[in-house]
C-alpha cells in the first residue's frame, strides 16, 4: 500500500503531457515512431475504444476471444498464461509502451491481473520478434500502448458491474487534452468470491476469492513542434486465494501481488527521422503462501534505458539503430543470494521499399548477458509483395532466443548454471486478401508457419536423487495453419459483422536429452491440435448484440500423451443499449453479459474446473 500512496503523491510532480503517435513524411517514406510498425510484418491491433469490453474482463479473456493465442487458464483467481502457435507461455513477451515486462524470476506473465480497458491499443504479434524486443519473444509479443486520443477538452467514463459468484467490478477514466498537452487517469477494480458449483458434486469451489486493482496515469506534452515527452505510471495490487486441484486436501493457498511501473519517453523529430529515448523503473512484489511448503517472498527490481534513431537514408530506405541496457535484481526468500543481471543489447533494423508492390525488411539484435557471460543474437528477414492494394503476401524468417530465468539458474539445490539459451527458428508465409461479395466486405488471412525451438528448458527428475532440476531437455517442432476470416455489412440502421478463426497446431517433441524415444513425436502438453472461434456482432439503433463461441480440442496432460483433458465448446453473449443524452452528447450505457451461456462443464487445465453459467449486468456513463 505504501507504493500506492507514493504514486498518488507523485502525480502533481508530473507536467501534463499530450501527444498522438509521431508520423513524419519523408517524400514517399512515412516514418512512424513505433519500431514494430515500421520493421515487422503487419499483424492485428485491437483498439480498445472500438471493442465491447466488460468492466470485469481481464486481458486473458480479451485474448481468448480476439486472438489466435491459446489461454491456459486455471480458473477464476488462478494463473492465466498465453502462448502462440505451439510455443510455451514463457515464449510470449509482454511489452508496455516499448518496455519489456518479462519477469526474470519465472519468465511468465499472469494476464488475469491486467485490465485491458486501460490501454488505448493492444497489438498482437504471433511471430517471433526477439530482434525487435529482446529475449523470450520466440513465440509472440503482446504490445500494450497508452495514448491520449479524442477531442480536446474533458472526457471520461465510469462503469459499474455486478453478477454471479459474488463478482463486483468498476472501471473509469478521465482525460483532458488540447493541441499540445494532455493527461489521463484510469482505474479498474474487480472483487469476487468465485464460489461456483463444481459439476458432479454437491459442493462449491472454495478458496477462490480475489481483489484486483489497477491504476494508470499517463501524461503527454509537446515541448516544440519537433519534441514530445510522455510519462506513464502503472500501479497494480492483487490479493487472491489460489484454488487447488479438486482432489487436493489443502485449500488455503494465498497469493499477493503488487507492482509499480514508471516509464518516461522522449522523442525528437529530425529532418530525416525520429530519435527516441525511453527509461523505466519496475518493481514487482509477489508473496505466495502454500500450506505444503514454506511461504515464498519475492521482489524483482528492473531498470531499463533505451535509445534509438530511425533515419531515412533515401525515399526508399529506412534505417533504425538503437541500444538497450536492462538491469534486473531479484530479492527472494528462496535464494541463497540475490542474483543480478545486466543485459546490454545493440539492435538495427532496415527497410527497403522497392516500389508500390515490393518491400524488404531486415532486423538484427546482439545481446550480452553478464551473469551468464553470454553473447547471443537474433535476426529476421521479411518480404512483402502486393499483388494489388487488397492482396498482399508476407514471407518472413527469424532467429529468436530466450535466456534461462533466475529460477532456472539459481533455485537452491536445483538451479543449473550450465543451461544454454533456448533458440527458435521461425518461418511464416501469410496471405492477406480483401474482397467483396455483393455488398459484404470480407477480409481473409491464411498463415502457414514452422517454428523449431532448440535447447527447450524443462524441469525433470535428476538421478540419483530424483529431485527436479532444469535441463536443456528437448527440441520441439511446432507447425501449423492459422485462418482468420472477417465479414461486415451495413444497411440502413443495421450493422452486421462476423469473424471466424481456426488454428491447426502440431507441436511435437523431436529429440530429448535423455534419449527417451517414447516422448518423440508426442504433442506438447496443453497444446490443442485444433482451436476455433466464431464472433458475431449485430448493431441496430441503440442496441448491440455480440456472440462469441469458442471450440478447443482435447489436450494432453502428460508428456507421453496417455492422459487427455476433454475438448470443450463455450458461448458468451453481450447485449448493450447505449443512448446519447444532453446537449453535449454524453452517453448512458446498460449491458447484460452471459458467460458460458450453454452451461458447459469443462476444464482448461486438468482438475481445475471452470465456472458454470454466469450472468453480469453493467451500467456506464460516458462524458
Plain-language structure description:
The protein is mainly β and 623 residues long. The chain has one domain (2-622): TonB-dependent receptor, beta-barrel domain (Maltoporin, Chain A). The strands form six sheets. The chain has a 22-stranded antiparallel β-barrel. Strands 3-8-9-6-7 form a five-stranded mixed β-sheet, with no helix packed on it. Strand 6 (92-96) and strand 7 (99-100) form a beta hairpin. The radius of gyration is 24 Å and the shape is globular. The longest helix is centred in the first third of the chain and has 9 residues, at 2-10. Helix content is 5%, strand content 59%.
Proportion of beta-strand residues: over 45%
Number of helices: 5
What is the first-to-last residue Cα distance?
Answer: 31 Å
Summarize the amount of helix as a percent range. under 10%
CATH C-level name:
Mainly Beta
Sheet of most strands: 22 strands, antiparallel, barrel
Please count the beta strands (DSSP E, at least 2 residues each): 35
Number of domains: 1
Structural class: mainly beta
Q: What integer is the average pLDDT? A: 88
Task: Tell me the Rg in angstroms.
Answer: 24 Å
**CATH superfamily membership, which one?**
TonB-dependent receptor, beta-barrel domain
Looking at the overall shape, the CATH architecture is Beta Barrel
Low-confidence stretches: 1-31
Assign the CATH topology.
Answer: Maltoporin, Chain A
Q: How does the overall form come out from the CA principal axes?
A: globular
Amino acid at each position: 500500500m505504501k507504493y500506492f500512496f507514493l504514486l498518488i503523491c507523485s502525480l502533481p510532480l508530473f507536467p501534463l503531457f499530450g501527444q498522438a503517435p509521431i508520423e513524419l513524411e519523408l517524400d514517399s517514406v512515412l516514418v512512424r515512431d513505433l519500431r514494430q510498425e515500421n520493421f515487422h510484418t503487419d499483424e492485428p491491433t485491437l483498439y480498445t475504444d472500438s471493442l465491447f469490453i466488460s468492466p470485469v474482463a481481464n486481458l486473458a479473456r480479451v485474448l481468448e476471444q480476439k486472438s489466435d493465442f491459446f489461454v491456459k487458464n486455471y480458473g477464476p483467481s488462478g494463473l492465466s498464461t498465453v502462448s502462440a502457435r505451439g510455443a510455451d507461455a514463457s515464449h510470449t513477451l509482454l511489452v508496455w509502451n516499448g518496455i519489456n515486462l518479462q519477469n526474470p524470476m519465472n519468465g511468465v506473465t499472469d494476464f488475469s491481473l491486467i485490465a485491458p480497458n486501460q490501454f488505448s491499443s493492444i497489438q498482437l504479434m504471433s511471430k517471433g520478434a526477439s530482434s525487435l524486443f529482446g529475449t523470450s519473444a520466440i513465440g509472440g509479443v503482446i504490445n500494450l500502448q497508452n495514448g491520449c486520443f479524442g477531442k480536446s477538452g474533458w472526457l471520461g467514463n465510469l462503469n459499474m458491474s455486478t453478477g454471479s459468484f459474488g463478482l463486483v467490478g468498476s472501471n473509469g477514466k478521465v482525460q483532458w487534452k488540447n493541441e499540445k498537452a494532455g493527461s489521463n487517469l484510469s482505474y479498474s477494480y474487480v472483487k469476487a468470491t468465485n464460489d461456483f458449483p463444481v459439476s458432479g458434486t454437491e459442493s462449491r469451489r472454495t478458496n477462490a476469492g480475489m481483489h484486483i486493482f489497477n491504476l494508470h496515469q499517463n501524461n503527454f506534452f509537446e515541448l516544440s513542434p519537433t519534441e514530445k515527452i510522455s510519462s506513464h505510471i502503472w500501479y497494480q495490487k492483487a490479493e487472491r486465494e489460489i484454488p487447488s486441484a479438486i482432489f487436493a486436501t489443502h485449500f488455503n493457498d494465498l497469493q499477493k501481488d503488487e507492482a509499480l511501473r514508471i516509464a518516461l519517453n522522449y522523442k525528437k523529430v529530425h529532418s530525416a527521422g525520429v530519435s527516441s529515448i525511453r527509461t523505466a523503473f519496475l518493481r514487482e512484489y509477489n508473496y505466495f503462501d502454500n500450506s505444503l511448503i514454506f511461504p515464498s517472498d519475492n521482489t524483482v527490481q528492473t531498470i531499463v534505458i533505451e535509445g534509438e534513431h530511425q533515419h531515412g537514408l533515401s525515399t526508399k530506405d529506412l534505417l533504425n539503430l538503437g541500444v538497450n541496457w536492462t538491469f534486473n535484481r531479484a530479492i527472494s526468500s528462496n535464494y541463497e543470494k540475490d542474483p543480478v543481471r545486466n543485459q546490454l543489447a545493440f539492435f538495427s533494423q532496415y527497410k527497403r521499399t522497392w516500389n508500390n508492390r515490393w518491400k524488404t525488411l531486415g532486423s538484427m539484435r546482439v545481446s550480452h548477458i553478464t551473469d551468464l557471460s553470454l553473447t547471443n543474437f537474433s535476426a529476421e528477414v521479411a518480404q512483402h509483395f502486393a499483388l494489388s492494394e487488397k492482396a498482399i503476401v508476407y514471407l518472413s524468417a527469424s532467429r529468436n532466443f530466450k535466456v534461462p530465468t533466475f529460477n532456472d539458474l539459481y533455485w537452491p539445490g536445483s538451479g543449473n548454471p550450465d543451461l544454454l539459451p533456448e533458440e527458435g527458428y521461425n518461418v511464416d508465409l501469410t496471405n492477406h486478401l480483401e474482397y467483396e461479395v455483393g455488398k459484404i466486405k470480407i477480409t481473409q488471412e491464411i498463415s502457414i508457419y514452422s517454428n523449431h525451438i532448440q535447447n527447450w528448458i524443462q524441469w525433470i527428475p535428476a538421478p540419483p536423487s530424483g529431485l527436479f532440476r532444469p535441463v536443456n531437455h528437448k527440441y520441439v517442432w511446432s507447425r501449423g495453419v492459422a485462418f482468420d476470416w472477417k465479414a461486415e455489412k451495413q444497411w440502413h440502421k443495421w450493422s452486421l459483422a462476423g469473424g471466424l478463426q481456426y488454428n491447426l497446431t502440431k507441436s511435437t517433441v523431436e529429440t530429448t536429452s535423455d534419449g527417451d524415444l517414447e516422448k518423440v513425436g508426442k504433442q506438447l502438453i496443453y497444446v490443442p491440435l485444433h482451436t476455433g472461434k466464431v464472433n458475431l456482432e449485430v448493431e441496430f439503433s441503440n442496441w448491440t448484440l455480440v456472440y462469441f463461441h469458442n471450440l478447443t480440442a482435447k489436450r494432453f496432460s502428460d508428456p507421453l500423451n496417455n492422459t487427455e483433458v476433454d475438448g470443450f465448446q463455450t458461448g458468451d453473449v453481450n447485449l448493450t443499449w447505449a443512448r446519447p443524452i444532453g446537449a453535449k452528447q454524453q452517453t448512458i450505457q446498460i449491458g447484460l453479459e452471459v458467460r458460458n451461456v450453454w452451461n458447459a462443464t469443462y476444464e482448461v487445465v486438468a482438475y481445475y474446473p471452470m465456472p458454470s453459467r454466469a450472468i453480469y449486468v453493467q451500467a456506464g456513463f460516458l462524458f
